[in-house]
Amino acid sequence: MRFLVVGAGALGGYFGGRLLAAGEDVTFLLRPARAAQLAATGLSIRSPAGDLHLPSPPSVLAHRIKAPFDVVIVGCKAYDLDETLAAFAPAVGPDTVVLPLLNGLRHIDRLSKRFGRRRVLGGLGMISATLAADGVVLHLGQDHTLVFGELDGGRSARVDAIAHAFARANFDGRASESILQAMWEKWALIAALAGITTLMRASVGDIVEAGAQQLALDLFAECARIAAHNGFAPSPAAIQRGRATLTAAGSPITASMAKDIERGAPTEADHILGDLLRRGRWSTADTVLLPVAYANLKSYEARRARECGVPRAGELLAA
Prior knowledge:
The chain has 2 domains: about 1-175, 3-Layer(aba) Sandwich (Rossmann fold), CATH 3.40.50.720; about 180-319, N-(1-d-carboxylethyl)-l-norvaline Dehydrogenase, domain 2. The strands form 2 sheets. Strands 5-2-1-6-7 form a 5-stranded parallel β-sheet, with helices on both faces. Strands 3, 4, 8, 9 and 10 form a 5-stranded mixed β-sheet that branches. It has 13 helices and 10 strands. By secondary structure, the chain is of the alpha/beta class.
């Protein structure tokens, strides 16, 4: 099975590197700068699950893709999706499976429109990882889970084949027969975490210390109600995990969008908070905090565009 991993950042670098180390046929689709960096230094992962160094990981630039791959793993930022799918489109053939690891669901619609729904799986990554300035992939926690499955549920031969490949690698690869449920449950939590940590400009632990954890729980409840309105009410176990995450005393966790704001970068506000709000706008009369959190992020993007002279996230792609 031939895997094309789009990018070698935190997600692609980690899961793709683990697959390559396990002997799978993996090629990284890279931009020129990252390709030059990996050619010089190799791909390095630092992780509680074991460090890894791959001196010469196979890579390709978009214009050099000559034939379809069996599986394309996509872990880009949402605002880069249009550019990214144009880059890997030559790798998608009649039997190719596209496995995206983005949060939310809007990307599923866009990938399905471009390549056909039958070529797209659902997927999510549960991992805290970042790309260091020197290009090293830093795995920051214990979780390193990749969950995937057919959008319509159940199992299939292609899901079983991917699961077999993942089982050889040093991460937790899980085939799900209800991947949309899992994606909605993660989306509700990620939106709440992003909303509260960007509103407060603080970590979960700082918010708890300030006595404001109820705001985080109220925001999570709004997001969970929207999931339920769409037919994917989070399970009691998912609610319990989410509440524990958002109220953990001393937790250093912040959402990646909070880190984006700190470094003056674009955010996934539209993909994570905006799209969730659109899917639930009429589901309840007490969705109050989510619109405020979304407006906060859009205000940041407007200020960033004005002060830095850059388009808001997604505007380059929409132009």
